[in-house]
């Protein structure tokens, strides 16, 4: 059964450090420290045990000299002390990269609550990465069906199971993908319910990515998420479990472009499929703004698409938030309380603070930070001023006992006055620190808003720049394009070029270009209808002749009807040919269309390029 393990001496601290850095650990480990002067941490260690105790070990590092022992035994920048907490994942990558094991700070109750949530999330995510969900069966886990009742936050969803509610955690489903891209309200799901924690595990219901992506076709435009970006390459995700590496040449025609200036991690982009799985290949170069991308696959049966394309970044503005006024700090402008006046104590009771410094062993290296450095309540400065000497003995005729009592009373009065001055100074210092903290929190919040705005502007600029680079690359004429005296030969060359460019050499034998002819009005219409390039038309003709257009939603392929009436017959010629209509453009005024005839033997005859409202074959 899960339990909270306390570390309270040098032996236990050494054993914990060796467990974390050793090779035998198979589960994440949560370490929560206690700030100096407190018996318990602000972080709720007991709640962490309840939430993740079956997937991770939880340790409580109490205050004392053994915190130094733990710090000395741990690698640099991976220690925990002063009320902070940290989760150590399985493996040792966190030693070289401490960001894999983020430190969660907590200096008060509010920060403790937030740190508790962060540590639970870290532990669940690391347990999922370690594959522990399938290796911890217990009698309390049972298969159930339920209906998604709500997704109150992106990281948590509520599922109605019978008369009770179960919780679905993002970290235990598809880490890094918000649950509103995995679930939707009203969706029926099935999974394994842990009756002890109330968690519903949906991993077993996730769809196979290979089967989901099998519907993608060569030449199709699909959605992908930017996962990582380097100067000369990027990694795009077609699925949370399928990552495709693209080179600079697949994004821009300029060999000097830095991809980090063209795309951002987390951005959803459109890419053309140039190679099918398992060795996927993608290109962002020749994707037009008006092409429709195939919807991204769902991760659960009947679930929502895991990626959704947004409007261009410069059209989607971030939510505006008026800056909050800075907190007023009248306390800093008030005069210091006069000596002798009693200052009211702080309402919150203070816990006595142990200010004794631990004995630090001598070391030839640089001094290590003391665990007390994170304790903001540690007393600063030196000791209180000495009590003034008692007044001189009076000779008013009183006896020795009265004189002694008088001296004692005078000394106590002087000491009381001094203590009142000390309390007044501390009270003023406390008020100043409280006000300073309020100001710092305001500055922090304002900086967070500014950072969000700047990140939005950066993504907007990168998206706009990438689109402009793509347009320039598509519009720039190739230096070695031949010129033809015969327009038909020139167009056929463009179609052949599109076939060679978009068909990998290994597949060209099994995917030949096919036979097609040009109708008597085709080249005339191509020159007459403006707003569409001949290369774009050649690309679509290549898709039609090779049969790929049938699998591309953006082509909107359908037979031309004799009228708009439902069930109207297809337009046919006397030789039995059927007229088809394909989209050259979408989402644009008078979008261009291509009409062509499919002959009884399967041969394609290109009829003409026309506008959206022109239905003449």
Describe the fold and architecture:
The protein has ten helices and 20 strands. It has 617 residues and is an alpha+beta fold. The chain has a five-stranded mixed beta sheet. It has a five-stranded antiparallel beta sheet with strand order 8-7-6-9-10, with no helix packed on it. A hairpin with a 4-residue loop joins β9 (188-194) and β10. α2 packs parallel to α5. The radius of gyration is 36 Å and the shape is elongated. The model is unreliable at 312-322, 327-368, 376-385 and 391-395 (pLDDT under 50).
Structure, briefly:
The chain is built from ten helices and 20 strands. It has helices at 10-21, 45-52, 66-73, 93-96, 109-129, 209-213, 400-475, 487-502, 522-528, 534-545; strands at 4-7, 29-33, 57-61, 85-88, 103-104, 141-153, 156-161, 164-169, 188-194, 199-201, 221-229, 233-239, 242-247, 268-275, 281-283, 516-518, 558-559, 578-583, 593-598, 604-610. It has a five-stranded mixed beta sheet with strand order 1-3-2-4-5. Strands 8-7-6-9-10 form a five-stranded antiparallel beta sheet, with no helix packed on it.
